[in-house]
């Protein structure tokens, strides 16, 4: 199914009056409101191919209907999201879950939906059918060179798929680590991993980046070989200029100060990409902004400050992606909510009075600093985000239109009631 311009225009016509009133009210107090709206229009968040199905937990999976059964249908789903919000203009593929059979056809299909190919993701955390060696005891860290070689070759293969599709980056997340003390020699595991990554790095085209994603625990529960931002930064620094750290919001130990991590990585020019999600406990992969919206705002505050300081373009110079999947909500509604939450946090952070904050910091005026931040955070910026959508030709209320058009019902009719999307 497709969502056409007329359906969006008709929906917007019904909501436009209220939108105009709310937006005008906000504009009264904001001198540079159009500049902010323009930044929101430009900001695109990539959607991972594996978030389009109702994901499972370790204990079970409750499949929903109308889920995409192949890459073409995944692209179509993200096309629907992008038509609704004009902010989801890229797809991130995971290999081998999404091996393209016909590159040209896939590229054309993505173009038709206005989608670019974001980072490619490799997978050495699962054994695939017909694979020679097992990753049970790790991949790039493995004590056996043959296993490491298999993992390296897989990553090079992923780069090749990405080149054909026009992607410009590879994200490597390794499940490597150990679950029991004594299982692993940490130094050797690090060195093996570094050498493996170096071989992958050597295969990167000149205009590509490699993102080294870290994660504190899971599936290993004693040590992870790329366990935190320090370790990731170590790999990225040793690898070279094309290597960066990738921050996934759910990959930290509880209460980690992620905004500080982001600030320092940006200072070093080593922050490459972002995986958005939210969590209460661990890598919960819940809808972005559903648990800790203030933290998300503080992270965006540091992102903006750090990017502006380095003259970086917000929309282009980092890889922005959602990495969430769970098993309760309609995944498309859930993704619309995540994108909205990201744009809200971004908009709020754009409203921070930087001069006032700098002054408060320079004079140790702690209370004033808090006032400045919370003034921005407590502004209801939803009319701003909606205005950006209106100007971009998207729906004023994407979730509402999604329901009005009964998108899920139509997908179920097209694809069936019992469907399972490849992925997590
Ligand atoms: C690991 C992770 C990583 C994977 C994705 C499926 O927890 O965040 O980014 O590629 O989930
Ligand atoms: Mn991730
Ligand atoms: Mn994760």
Protein model, in words:
The chain is α/β, with parallel strands linked by helices and 424 residues long. Helix content is 48%, strand content 10%. It is built from 15 helices and ten strands. The site of one manganese (II) ion has 5 residues, from loops. One manganese (II) ion binds next to loops.
Would you spell out the secondary-structure blueprint of this structure?
Elements: H1 5-28, H2 33-42, E1 47-48, H3 71-85, E2 90-94, H4 103-112, E3 116-121, H5 145-165, E4 169-173, E5 177-178, H6 186-202, E6 209-213, E7 223-224, H7 229-239, E8 243-248, H8 258-267, E9 271-276, H9 293-309, E10 319-322, H10 331-350, H11 354-362, H12 366-377, H13 382-392, H14 398-404, H15 407-415
Parallel strand pairs: 1-2, 2-3, 3-4, 4-6, 6-8, 8-9, 9-10
Antiparallel strand pairs: 5-7
The chain binds 6-deoxy-beta-L-fructofuranose and manganese (II) ion (2 copies).
Characteristics:
424 residues; alpha/beta; eight-stranded parallel β-sheet; single chain; binds 6-deoxy-beta-L-fructofuranose; two-stranded antiparallel ribbon; binds manganese (II) ion
Helix content: 40-55%
Number of helices: 15
**How are the strands of the largest sheet arranged?**
1-2-3-4-6-8-9-10
Please state roughly what percent of the residues sit in beta strands, choosing from under 5%, 5-15%, 15-25%, 25-35%, 35-45% or over 45%. Answer: 5-15%
Integer-rounded radius of gyration: 22 Å
Number of E strands: 10
Low-confidence stretches: none
Q: What is the H-and-E element order? A: HHEHEHEHEEHEEHEHEHEHHHHHH
Given helix and strand content, the structural type is alpha/beta
């Amino acid at each position: 199914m497709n969502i056409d311009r007329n359906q969006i225009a008709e929906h917007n016509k019904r909501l436009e009056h209220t939108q105009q009133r709310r937006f005008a009210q906000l504009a009264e107090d904001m001198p540079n409101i159009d500049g902010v709206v323009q930044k929101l229009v430009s900001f695109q968040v990539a959607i991972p191919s594996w978030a389009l199905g109702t994901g499972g937990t370790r204990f079970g999976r409750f499949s929903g209907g109308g889920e995409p059964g192949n890459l073409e249908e995944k692209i179509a789903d993200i096309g629907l999201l992008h038509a609704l919000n004009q902010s989801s203009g890229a797809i991130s593929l995971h290999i081998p879950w999404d091996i393209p059979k016909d590159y040209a056809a896939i590229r054309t299909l993505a173009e038709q939906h206005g989608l670019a190919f974001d980072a490619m993701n490799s997978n050495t955390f699962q054994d695939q059918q017909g694979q020679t060696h097992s990753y049970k005891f790790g991949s790039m860290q493995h004590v056996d060179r043959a296993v490491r070689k298999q993992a390296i070759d897989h990553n090079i293969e992923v780069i090749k798929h990405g080149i054909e599709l026009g992607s410009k980056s590879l994200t490597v997340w390794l499940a490597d680590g150990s679950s029991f003390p004594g299982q692993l020699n940490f130094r050797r595991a690090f060195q093996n991993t570094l050498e493996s990554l170096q071989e992958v790095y050597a295969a990167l085209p000149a205009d590509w980046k490699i993102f080294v994603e870290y994660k504190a625990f899971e599936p290993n529960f004693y040590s992870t070989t790329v366990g935190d931002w320090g370790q990731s930064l170590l790999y990225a620094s040793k690898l070279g200029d094309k290597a960066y750290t990738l921050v996934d919001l759910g990959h930290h130990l509880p209460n980690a100060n992620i905004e500080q991590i982001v600030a320092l990585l940006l200072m070093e020019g080593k922050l490459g990409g972002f995986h958005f999600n939210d969590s209460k406990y661990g890598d919960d992969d819940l809808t972005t902004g559903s648990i800790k919206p203030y933290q998300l705002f503080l992270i965006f505050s540091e992102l903006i400050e750090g990017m502006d300081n380095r003259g970086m373009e917000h929309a282009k110079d980092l890889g922005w992606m959602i990495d969430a999947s769970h098993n309760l909500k309609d995944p498309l509604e859930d993704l619309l909510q995540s994108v909205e939450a990201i744009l809200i946090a971004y908009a709020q952070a754009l409203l921070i009075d930087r001069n006032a904050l700098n002054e408060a910091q320079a004079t140790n005026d702690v209370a004033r600093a808090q006032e400045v931040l919370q003034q921005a955070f407590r502004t209801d910026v939803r009319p701003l985000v909606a205005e950006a959508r209106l100007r971009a030709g998207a729906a004023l209320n994407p979730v509402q239109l999604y329901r009005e058009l009964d998108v899920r019902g139509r997908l179920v009719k097209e694809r069936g009631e019992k469907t399972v999307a490849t992925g997590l």
